[in-house]
Amino acid sequence: MKLIILGAPGSGKGSQAPHLNREYGLVHLATGDILRKNIKEETPLGLEAKEFIDNGKLVPDEIVIKLVEQRISEKECEKGVFFDGFPRTLSQAEQLDKIVKIDKVIYLEVDFSILLKRITGRRSCVCGRTEHIKRLKDNKCECGKTYYQRDDDTEEMVKPRLETFLSQTAPLIDYYKKQGKLITINGDGEVGDIFEVIKEVLN
Q: Is 118 in the active site?
């Protein structure tokens, strides 16, 4: 099974990763992770991408698509994959269609006012854990470190990210709707409850 999880920042795409992996054996594919891994391992494509990044430029779609194609051909991905945060544009979606057959596209729809509260209330720890301030008692993580707010989780940074989603990624909703692959799910709720709805549409 090849899925795409679409949704604005903070809609809960990444939160569904462990559930999709456990239930269906799907590998979570985020292009940022793929890029970092290739750069760290100094693969030919990784070095090519690093050159663009070092010069403050976006990595071209052609390189990203090649990295994705390489990743989904690995044995770990045989049972299936789901894309999180990719494709971001119509151009990327069209190129992705050339290398892999996408079965379904799940769009987690959440009102932007809710997303703003979710993201600006999110706190991170150096150990990798994240938590929302409404569930924090003393701002201390289980590891003993103090939670902090990431720079890109502030209101000043979140609003432009949401606007970018509207302008660049929202057109993908129509693109996949025309293909008959789009499934819209209300993303405002508990992670487990939302996954139960996802299971219903996938089974």
A: no
